[in-house]
């Protein structure tokens, strides 16, 4: 098989002839049309470009592409392209490509956007994002009010199912992580406390650490990755499949029907999960204290009980409640903001987790300072 | 344009999902350069048969031969080469939403051919122009209409100039004019490039106007009831169910 070739000749004044020969397949590369384009530009008084394809062995899109480019070049330079010497199929395709005029609003994604424009764009997006959050939280509050008044449309069976999914089904992962966190806290503390012969205070460290902060915090982070992401993906997919639109057109508020049950379920379950995480963490700490530092089991738990009071427990539970609201609202917000493509679902899911974690840490800082001021 | 040369042969093919047999004992031939319709009522397993034909679902029994070669008996390397000879348009387009239309078409070109990004983009522009989408290269699937997505999906299926083009419900959900234009495009592609086109459809107008050959699959019998030129089947098929289907229930 001979290689693809374009040979330009000028049989008479004002006419260029391109001899197309050889084997034109995409698999053997894409020959350039630039030699012919240069010949067109260099020939004075050129009026017509014609073809001769007697030696053409085979062809596919690679030849169509070259002729298509030449057709564009001819149009730009005012030369008439005469396709009569080309194979019939190729002429058909060329005609087909030219039937619909090119869409004029060509997109250009400019990667080198001016720095200030980029900063401005980001600032506007940030303000818009804050406005969206406020609007969404307001909408949820109104829906909650409707729910309490018994006027919200939702299915109680859905609420119970979501409670089961975010509560009972999360117990295994919460158990594992909490035991390990308790274990790590005990080890980290023991290294220092052992130097002063104060091993027994491992119980205080783990107990207070878990109950006041780590129990709720770790549960919230688990739930952000598990439930918040699931909320965003589920609602985002419903947007892609137009299920949310279907609810709206039936006059059912998607906030009432989908968002409020999810938020309620997580807000109810988070304090319980946080309490459970506290117990698991204390158990993890006890495992280290009892087995590695010769603290008696009874002694360890008595020390823990003496270190923690009810205010610490309720403080931790309140944090759990706040984190639960943050995770649920972030997940639902990002899900409801999702675009209409599968890539947008991925973005919404990532954004839900990031938003949750950022706000959890911010809330933790604020609550810790507030507790300190209030003497809790 | 239809020829007697065999492009694909279904030889006693049965397809199933797990233990559930969808279609059994399929015997028919798709000739080279034919526009071939796989038709039948909703839920009869047309798309499943197509999945089997494009190498996504191994038949439970029988063989699907491409020329003289069975896809499922070939080694992995050969399977990969065979796959490049199929272009597939899925029912909902299945364009990759994180890529622009041009990138959707360029991906198989840069993956399987020795083309630079610029060259692949040039070919992508040409393919988009062929389906009437010149100038939409940088648009994302979510930014264009359903009909445009279908046409872009056909452009992607044509990216490697496949010898066989499989189109799953190409005109479903399109307005009559778009549907007509799509039919013309399919005929043009077959006539210009000699591409064999297999259409999975129950759009009677398209089937009767552009298809040279067809097979009719049935839900209850879970097998084919007839095969042949759909225009002839409409009037002459011995099976009343096939005649009724092709005559919109009036036969």
What key phrases describe this protein's structure?
heterodimer; A: 376 residues; alpha/beta; 5-stranded mixed sheet; elongated; B: 251 residues; 6-stranded mixed sheet; 4-stranded antiparallel sheet; 9 helices
Q: What oligomeric state best describes the polypeptide chains here?
A: heterodimer
The helix fraction of chain B, in percent, is 25-40%
Tell me the fraction of residues in β-strands of chain A, as a range.
5-15%
Q: Overall 3D geometry of chain A?
A: elongated
User: How much helical structure, as a percent, in the residues of chain A?
Assistant: 55-70%
Strand pairing plus helix content of chain A: what structural class? alpha/beta
| Overall SS class of chain B | alpha/beta
- Provide a count of the helices of chain B: 9
Distance between the termini of chain B: 30 Å
Low-confidence stretches of chain A: none
What does this structure look like?
The complex is a heterodimer of chains A (376) and B (251). Chain A is built from 12 helices and 5 strands. With 376 residues, chain A is of the alpha/beta class. In chain A, strands 1, 2, 3, 4 and 5 form a 5-stranded mixed beta sheet that branches. In chain A, strand 1 (5-12) and strand 2 (15-23) form a beta hairpin. In chain A, helix 1 packs parallel to helix 2 (61-77). Chain A starts with a strand and ends with a helix. With 251 residues, chain B is α/β, with parallel strands linked by helices. Chain B is 37% helix and 24% strand. Chain B is built from 9 helices and 10 strands. In chain B, helix 3 packs across helix 4 (117-130), helix 4 packs across helix 5 (146-157) and helix 8 packs across helix 9 (240-246). The longest helix of chain B has 18 residues, at 176-193. Chain B is globular. Chain B starts with 5 loop residues before the first strand and ends in a 5-residue tail after the last helix. The interface between A and B is medium-sized, with 36 and 33 residues.
